[in-house]
Amino acid sequence: MVQDIATYRAAAKVPVRYMIRARTKDEDGQKRLYASLKYDQWQEDGFLRRPMRKHYRHGKTRVSNQIVFEPLMYTSFERNGVI
């Protein structure tokens, strides 16, 4: 699960690198942005945050009838050894 998140994040960085190269002509600015992207500091940078959120794979469910039980919202009991 954690490895999947890291993989999705690394995959999202590829198009963002191309975007940095295309939109930034200043080499010092490119190095700064690449370093922020490499060390996962893109959340603090507004320029990098927008494309990362665009390309980062978000969790989506295809289930239309999902039921979520909150532990504090219901009670259960046993009858003849069956819950």
State the gist of this model:
This protein is an all-alpha fold and 83 residues long.
Could you describe the 3D structure shown?
With 83 residues, this protein is mainly alpha-helical. It is 53% helix and 0% strand. The chain contains three helices and no strands. It has helices spanning 2-23, 27-38, 46-55. The longest helix is centred in the N-terminal third of the chain and has 22 residues, at 2-23. 10% of the residues are buried.
Give the SSE map.
Blueprint: H1 2-23, H2 27-38, H3 46-55
Helix pairs in contact: 1-2, 1-3
Keywords summarizing the entry:
about 80 residues, rod-shaped, about 0% strand, 3 helices, mainly alpha
Rounded to an integer in angstroms, the radius of gyration calculated over CA atoms is 22 Å
Mean pLDDT value: 84
Low-confidence stretches: none
Oligomer: single chain
Distance linking N and C termini: 31 Å
